[in-house]
Fold this protein.
Amino acid sequence: MADYSLSNMLAQLVDISSTIKQSLLPQQCLLCAGASGAHAFCAACCADLPWHDAPACPVCALPAPGGQVCGACLQQPPAFDATVTVLDYAFPVDALLQRYKYDGLITMAEPLAELLLTGLGGRPLPDAVIPMPLHPQRLRERGYNQALEIARVVACRLDVTLATRACSRTRHTPPQAGLTLEQRRRNMRGVFACQADLRGRHIALLDDVMTSGASLDALARAVKAAGAAHVECWAVARTPRT
């Protein structure tokens, strides 16, 4: 795999800056503005978050009796092998993620990454984390890649490679909102390209929200085509299947 040391150095600088900030400045809860010490959320608000803790399919993270592989994944297995998510895409997480994504609040990347990290304890670490790529046109419009900013923190905390140049989005697609699952899948076909040699690698694909899973499935197909042996999806929040 190519050397991505620059991205990892940037992630480490973010981590150092965060440590200094938390040690010198009092924190306010992002939800209630009350005192939260060195954390983004106070204890009460943290406990009230819509944690994704019901039994779920280990492949797609949707609810499944006994935590077994669900019927949908058995009938039509996605290209990825597992999914880790920590929150349901419900109030107030949906509002937080919307503000982070569309209001330019890049500073929220760190607390969102910290939430995701709570669900990764004890898992075998991947060889690299690949953030969901944005098309250059969308990146110009938004000014930053929300998945990449979260991935910087996660990769630094776990001390794994942040592979920012491994994959690219080759086609600008319309928004997925309002489309059926099958329409979303058709919309995402051939959207991603993988430029890295990933033969035999364990890869984690990171996004802020997993909705239908169509985008992550398409990205996983590109990564598997590049030789990846095991591909996981990591997302801060998961929505019900639409």
